[in-house]
Amino acid sequence: MNIYPANFPDTSPSLxxxxxxxxxxxxxxxxxxxxxxxxARGVPVRALHRDPATARARAPASPPTPEWVRGDAxxxxxxxxxxxxxxxxxHAVNPPGYRRWGELVLPMVEASIAAAEACGxxxxxxxxxxNFGPDAGSDLAEQxxxxxxxxxxxxxVALEARLQxxxxxxxxxxxxxxxxxxxxxNPGSHWFAQxxxxxxxxxxxxxxxxxxxxxxxxxxxxxxxxxxxxxxARADALAPFEAFHFHGHWDADGQxxxxxxxxxxxxxxxxxxxxxxxxxxLAAPVVPLxxxxxxxxxxxxxxxxxxxxxxxxxxxAEPHTPLDEAVRRSLVGLGCLSRAPA
Length: 342
Prior knowledge:
Elements (H helix, E strand, L loop, with lengths): L2 E2 L16 E4 L4 H12 L4 E5 L2 H7 L8 E4 L5 H7 L5 E4 L9 H19 L2 E6 L11 E2 L10 H19 L4 E5 L2 E3 L7 H6 L9 E3 L7 E5 H13 L7 E5 L3 E3 L4 H10 L6 E3 L2 H7 L4 H8 L9 E2 L2 H7 L2 E2 L3 H11 L9
Parallel strand pairs: 1-16, 2-3, 2-5, 3-4, 5-6, 6-8, 7-15, 8-12, 9-11, 10-14
Antiparallel strand pairs: 11-13
């Protein structure tokens, strides 16, 4: 597989500043990473938020910074107003805490579709593996069978189907970039920061959510964001609806991420602990988030690997930071490590 470090010179077409990119969910994991990647290339970013002053205060203060505008991703009028002149809408927003997906996810994307139709923009959606059930196999191309066994998976299938229909029937082009579990230097709703380590605390243990010997796929957010930006730059080469798989880092036995944490921290004996799923089940009736996480446990019990052949055929290579360096940056950014031993 042809992959290269994230600081490798990029030969993709440039994104000319003929209009901003509108990011919905710019304070989230993927939305924040793609905002930083766009700004680093000199691309103006407009970020929709219900409280722009708070978002501005929490965001990195050093320039360049996005243009924060007030609005709600559920409000079609505010999304349309924010999208004026935009060449792309990054739809990186989800209901918080996995709650009310069935009620809110599709209305949210309808607002983005209406805005994209009005201004002639393409929608970019960060996808995941929820679409695929246990029957999908362990080595998945973009057109693999989608038979989800969870409610969230069914919503994701419906979400992508709606974008595909919008491309065919309304002339609204869209792009789905599917990836494995996120990890990166910023806190967020992902297993690395909320399950394996504790942000803001020195490393005392590493929690392993997966079953012994089961492989798992990880996506380093800066690499994934760089991939999204390169795909935006090649919009002219894309069909009205496209889906791509991001390979990222494959942990073949479910131990490689934990071992990388040990190496980076210089603690080869750092304890490894299995996640007590039984305790999550006991607390699930009173903690809705735990109930939603338990629903996705099958992804930790069997390997599900996204193949990146189609993406590499288009880009020539996949942006890729070596695992130890990606883990080091993540731990430092999360406040778990002041610096990595040489």
